[in-house]
Every structure is written in structure tokens, then in C-alpha cells.
């Protein structure tokens, strides 16, 4: 390695080899514009020492928001399922970018990250799951920033996993569930609510369900496609491998699905050439997917009419699981119906229900043994 002189400007420059990057490409560090050869040599020696000690970082004022929304998300797009990537992108844009704005990546400290988590808990009121997901994103992105030599160490490495007070899970009891279903019978979106409260399917799974996924002969449906949170695209990649599953339907659900299919066929005929046939079970009168926001708007309106406690749409899924467990259904079966990746997820999520289940099981077993 040597210092070179630019014959046009009379200044000095050099190139230092810095090994290979994480993609296996040669990394070179170039510096130009030194007035004297001595200045160039001094800077070259300094950089070579930093490279040897693995402490070299780029001379940059790169913003953290710019990096995470650009380089980091681009790298994840090559590895993640589209469903997971959409969740990452949502958390990055709505929470991380909104908070850090023009903060330079090199000026982020553990204290700044801890204040960010406190902001998410106190001011945003996010759930434990969402904050832990954001924590994983922050750790992963700053680890990549170290590899790409934007920072010498990750400040997230010194930040503990945020402790978030677990919110009470809001669900309906059996009487509230049946009252709500009765109220929804006249709604255009009745089928969405019926599926939610008889199968425990997620919102995106219900809105992505197709007629070809339903086996009327065997009384089952397969969860194989989801609609994105913004309602703009479908994905045949479910949340996890176990989310792709087969669910046995109740007789009432099968009966209502058959009636609903006839209704959809009439709407298709009436719409004629303007009908967009996505083969969807729950759709608009012209065949298009239901916008999730419109579903939620209708859901909140119907809750008020039915005079039931206000819960999130995802609370319908929790309601199904809670009702099943309190009726003594094996947690392993509940896990398979909900499509959880691990039985531990089911047991942890619904741990508040299990003491009641154990008590009832002990009572039944006692009756079996002793009458």
C-alpha cells in the first residue's frame, strides 16, 4: 500500500484493503484530498491500525431511520416470508422511524434505546409482543450496522429485554359470544364473524379464505392464504409453518357457508363483467377483498349494538381458545386449531384459564373413580 499523488490537483490519496464484507466482496477504504504526503501517510497508518484491531468505522452521518428503512429492510426482504416482512416493515415505519427521525446511527446510545422502549410502553401503550418484536428489530439492525462498519459496537447489546406489564386479555363469555353472533346475522360480514368465533382464525386468514379451501364433503377448511394488514395483497405464506392447517367445522358453520355461497353466486351474476373473481368466501359484492379497516369499523358498530364488552378483533380468537379450554378441550387440540407454532405458546398465552381447567378435570376424574 502506498500514497499516490494526483497530477491534476497536486493532492495525495490512498487505498487501504479492509478484508471482505459479510457478502464476501472485497472491501476497500479510499481517502483523497490530502495537502501533503505526510498527512496522507499519517491517516493511512491510523486506518490500517483500526482495520487490524477491528475498530474501523466509516466516516458517515448516516441516519438510523435511513439505514433501517433502507439497507436493513432490503436485506431482510431476501430472507423472510412476505407476511413476516410486512410486520417488520410496519413496526419500522410506524414506530422506529417515527421516533428516531434524523438521529445519526453513530449517536445512538443504550440510554436513547431505553427511553424509546419507555415511550412505546407509556405513550403508545403497545402490547408486550409488539414491543419485544421491535426490540428484536433494533438489535438485529444495529448488529448489521456494526458488520457494515457504520458503528464500532451495538448500543443495543447493553440494553436488557424490555419488561412490559402484561395487559389483561379481554374475551367474551359464552352468553356474550352468542349474543354478538345473533346481532351479526343480518350483517354483510356475518360470515367473517361466524368463522372467527367457530374456528379461531386470524383476521387475515378469514379475509384470504377461498371456496377452494373448503371441503364441504368432509366438513373442513384449510388455512392456506392470508390477506395483508393493509388489504392490498394476498400471500400463500402463512404466519408460521403450523399456521397452514386444517380445521374441522361445526355443522352450523357448514350450513351457513352453503347458504353464503349461493348468496355470493347471485352477487357475481348481478355484477356481471365488473366482478373480480378472487374465489373469496368473504368479499365485497363485486368480488374484491374486504378492506380490514372496513371490517373493524363494522365490528365496533355491531359490538355496541349487541351491548357486549369492547374487545379487539383478535380478541375473538382469544375468546374461542378460552371457551374451548374451559370446556376441557385438550390444549394440544386447541394449539392445532389456532395454528400455534409450539404448545408452550398456547399454555403461556392462556395460563390464566388453566387453573379452572385443572380443577374441573380433577372433579371429573374424582367422579370417575369414586362416583
Describe this structure in a few short sentences.
Keywords: DNA integration, DNA recombination, DNA-binding. With 371 residues, the chain is mainly alpha-helical. It has helices at residues 37-52, 64-77, 82-100, 110-122, 128-147, 174-184, 190-199, 203-207, 251-271, 292-306, 314-326, 331-338, 343-349, 354-370; strands at 4-5, 12-20, 26-34, 214-215, 220-223, 226-227, 234-235, 245-248.
Q: Give the name of the CATH architecture of the largest domain.
A: Orthogonal Bundle
- Helix content, binned percent: 40-55%
Q: Span from first to last CA?
A: 91 Å
Strand and helix order: EEEHHHHHHHHEEEEEHHHHHH
For the record, the CATH class of the largest domain is Mainly Alpha
Keywords:
371 residues, DNA polymerase, domain 1, hpI Integrase, Chain A, 3 domains, 14 helices, 9% strand
Explain what this protein looks like in three dimensions.
With 371 residues, the chain is mostly helical. It folds into three domains: 4-52; 64-158, Orthogonal Bundle (DNA polymerase, domain 1); 174-363, Intergrase catalytic core (hpI Integrase, Chain A). Helices cover 51% and strands 9% of the residues. It contains 14 helices and eight strands. Strands 1-2-3 form a three-stranded antiparallel β-sheet, covered by helices on one side. The radius of gyration is 28 Å and the shape is elongated. The mean pLDDT is 88. Keywords: DNA integration, DNA recombination, DNA-binding. Belongs to the 'phage' integrase family. GO terms for molecular function: DNA binding.
Amino acid at each position: 500500500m502506498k500514497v499516490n499523488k494526483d497530477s491534476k490537483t497536486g493532492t495525495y490519496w490512498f487505498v487501504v484493503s479492509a478484508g471482505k464484507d459479510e457478502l464476501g466482496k472485497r472491501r476497500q477504504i479510499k481517502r483523497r484530498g490530502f495537502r501533503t504526503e505526510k498527512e496522507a501517510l499519517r491517516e493511512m497508518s491510523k486506518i490500517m491500525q483500526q482495520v487490524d484491531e477491528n475498530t474501523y468505522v466509516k466516516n458517515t452521518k448516516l441516519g438510523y431511520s435511513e439505514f433501517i428503512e433502507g439497507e436493513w429492510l432490503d436485506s431482510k426482504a431476501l430472507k423472510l416470508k412476505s407476511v413476516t416482512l410486512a410486520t417488520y416493515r410496519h413496526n419500522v415505519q410506524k414506530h422506529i422511524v417515527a421516533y428516531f427521525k434524523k438521529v445519526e446511527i453513530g449517536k445512538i446510545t443504550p440510554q436513547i434505546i431505553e427511553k424509546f422502549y419507555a415511550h412505546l410502553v407509556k405513550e403508545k401503550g403497545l402490547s408486550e409482543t409488539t414491543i419485544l418484536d421491535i426490540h428484536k428489530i433494533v438489535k438485529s439492525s444495529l448488529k448489521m450496522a456494526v458488520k457494515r462498519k457504520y458503528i464500532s459496537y451495538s448500543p443495543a447489546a447493553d440494553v436488557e429485554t424490555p419488561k412490559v406489564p402484561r395487559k389483561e386479555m379481554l374475551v367474551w363469555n359464552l352468553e356474550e359470544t352468542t349474543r354478538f353472533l345473533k346481532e351479526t346475522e343480518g350483517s354483510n360480514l356475518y360470515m367473517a364473524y361466524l368463522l372467527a368465533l367457530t374456528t379461531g382464525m386470524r383476521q387475515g386468514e378469514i379475509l384470504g379464505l377461498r371456496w377452494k379451501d373448503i371441503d364441504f364433503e368432509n366438513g373442513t377448511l384449510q388455512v392456506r392464504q392470508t390477506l395483508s394488514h393493509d388489504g392490498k395483497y394476498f400471500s400463500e405464506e402463512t404466519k408460521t409453518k403450523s399456521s397452514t392447517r386444517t380445521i374441522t367445522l361445526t355443522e352450523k358453520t357448514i350450513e351457513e357457508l352453503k347458504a353464503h355461497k349461493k348468496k355470493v353466486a347471485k352477487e357475481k351474476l348481478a355484477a356481471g363483467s365488473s366482478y373480480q373473481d378472487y374465489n373469496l368466501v368473504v368479499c365485497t359484492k363485486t368480488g374484491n377483498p374486504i378492506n380490514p379497516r372496513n371490517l373493524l369499523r363494522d365490528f365496533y358498530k355491531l359490538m355496541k349494538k349487541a351491548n357486549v364488552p369492547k374487545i379487539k378483533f383478535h380478541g375473538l380468537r382469544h375468546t374461542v381458545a378460552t371457551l374451548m379450554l374451559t370446556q376441557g378441550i385438550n390444549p394440544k387440540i386447541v394449539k392445532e386449531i389456532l395454528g400455534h407454532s409450539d404448545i408452550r405458546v398456547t399454555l403461556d398465552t392462556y395460563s390464566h384459564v388453566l387453573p379452572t381447567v385443572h380443577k374441573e378435570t380433577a372433579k371429573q376424574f374424582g367422579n370417575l373413580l369414586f362416583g
